[in-house]
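Listing S7. Sequence submitted for prediction.
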Amino acid sequence: MIEHGELSELRDQVLSTISEPERIFVGSLDELMAIREIESGKWLVVVYRELESDGFVITAFVTRRIRQLERRKQVWPA
């Protein structure tokens, strides 16, 4: 979040996007991409990895290009 100053106000939303996403896609390196609409037509994307008992956020960003994400494999909801 340090490098993404525009997301500093969205910290709680980043965490809730992981815990309660609208959808989850698989990234090109098998990372997970949780998404949630934060405004009409504006999506928060949180890229993260899950480990056996833990996990970590790789990056997060806001986009309006939802169609690019929809080309990926959706793993939740199945």
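Caption to Listing S7: primary sequence and predicted structure tokens for the chain studied. The radius of gyration is 12 Å. The CA atoms of residues 43 and 65 lie 8 Å apart.
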